[in-house]
Known about the structure:
Heat Shock Protein 90, rod-shaped, Helix Hairpins, Beta-Lactamase, about 500 residues, alpha+beta
Amino acid sequence: MNLGERLRTLPLRRRLVAGFAAAMLVLLTAAGAVVYWRVQYALDRGLDTELRSARAVIIPLVDAAGHVTSPEAADATGTGWQVLGADGSVLDSGGAAPGRTLVPDSALPATGSRTLDVGSMLPIAAAPYRVEVTVLGATDGAASYVLVGVRRDHRDEALRELLLQMSLAGVGALVVASLVGDQLARLALRPVERYRRRASEIASGSGHRRLEVPTRRDDEVTRLGHTLNEMLGALEESLTRERQFVGDASHELRTPLTLLRTRIQLARRRERSVAEHEAVLDELAVDVARLADLAEQLLELDRTSSSHGSSGDLVDLGEVVAAEVGRWRAAHPDRADGVVVDEPDARVHAAVGRQALERIVTNLLANALAHGSAPVRVVVRREGGHAVLQVADEGPGMDPDMLAQATRRFSRAPEARARPGAGLGLSLVEHLAVSAGGELRLCHAGHHASTGVAADVECLHDDRMTATVLLPVAPARNAFTKSSSSDS
């Protein structure tokens, strides 16, 4: 396992502290290097000034033979000096300089001057020098040099002391920074750990609980807490609706299944003729058909819940209404006059899939005919940025409480339970309309219930039961809001 993989396995707090410490180490090292370089430069500059002054005094004192004519004057400069021959041998020396050459032949310059350090600072050299070698010229056809040097003992000691102090200060600063970083990381991650413990409690069964988020703070952690609370609320609502759906579906399926079981048990109690068996089979066929219709509606609702109701194409609403009403009249010629269509003066297009639009029209029409009274009036028009479909009937309508929950799955009024249907039609219409970015309104006797993107479009203001679907004339993003109101 390499270093990167090992770091990734560490807890987040340790990784934060390690990263903070590494950044501080780089910063302290860079700062120490700059300080060390500036101090070294200042000390070397002082020594170089002393060397140049001594060189200016000593060079005029060197004669043609390579000897200093006034050793006393050369020694008065306070430096060590040497006169070197072309082969690097010492021709003359004085001051603190030893009798042997201080620099190797390879360090001698070809022209001009050269400054270099002799002896290392670490480890400590016995005789550290800073020397300057200057080319004199030719003596009997051979080049000679003047070497001027000063001891670096004080300079090296100052730099070593500086390195020690900066190292101790850097280690101390790094330790303090790591401790501070650890505390900061602990404080920053404490709300996250608190959220984790509360989330664990919620996962253990306390689904009604929420994360404790400070109200007077607005930072990344508190925003995360609010988002998680919103997510928990949405999950709880979704789970509640799913549980209710399963319970309602079980209740609705229990009745036809019980009837089937009862009819089968009754049919087996005695021998029957072929005609009697056919009669029993006809009764069973009715119950099976009811079960099939219920299953088909549940599957259709599930398919629409997992798909989008909007479409990039525009569909002619009036054309779809005319086609669906025509199919109903063809199937029920004796009741053909029970549906009246107010056709629009111009084409009304809606940004919704044709199949979804057909399901909306069919379900609204079937709902009005099953639970209302003829004549059923279908109105198609365009108002503002919406295509409007209104279906009104002369039935008894719904009371305000039922109006507010009519779009819930399997929701039916007590008097409607004896009629065909499972209470899924309006739920399907609601989902298709809202998925397309539209709105479903249910109105009766001055009371209204609305689901979807609210639009500034008026409904039919009379005592008839009216279902209004508002669809955008251009593709819209999904939205889902629900409200109910009562007009005085």
